[in-house]
Every structure is written in structure tokens, then in C-alpha cells.
User: Fold this.
Amino acid sequence: MAAKNTSWTGKHDEALKVFMQSKGASIRKAEVRFCMSRSFLHRRLAEMNLTCRPQSCSLARQAAGWEPLPTGHPLAMSAILLPLISTADRFSDAVSS
Assistant:
């Protein structure tokens, strides 16, 4: 396995958002693609979701002061879903890169 990357930027957040909306995407595949741990990627997705859609966060997360929930807490898919990016936006991002 490749060494884990230690620097993360806003461009990585956007790339992760696009990647997770692609067909067959998973946190395990994102781990390989971005060379970051699954736990880090999961936390980033949760933080991005909180910024985009705070109403989707669970009452347990709100009660914990928006901090990560304890190990073993059941997660819902809605906790890591992000708003869809239109195909035109995805294409223009890919062309400009």
C-alpha cells in the first residue's frame, strides 16, 4: 500500500465529492484513489455534509456537539451523502483540470 498523503486541500474535497458521486464509488475505493485512511475520508465526508446539509445530521450527532460519534455507533448512508453535481459541472471541472 502506498504511503498516506499528509496534505489535504479544498481541491481534494471537491475531487472527493465528485468521486463519491460516481458509479460504484466507496470509501474503500476512495482510500486507494486519494491515499488517505478510510476514517479520515469518512470524517471529511461527514464534515462536508454538515456544511452542505446540516438538517441531514442525526440527533445523536447534534447532541455530541457535531463531534465524531463513538466507535461502533450505527451510521446511516444519509450521513455521508453529498448534493449531486450536474453532469455539465462535472465535465467542466474535468476539462479545466
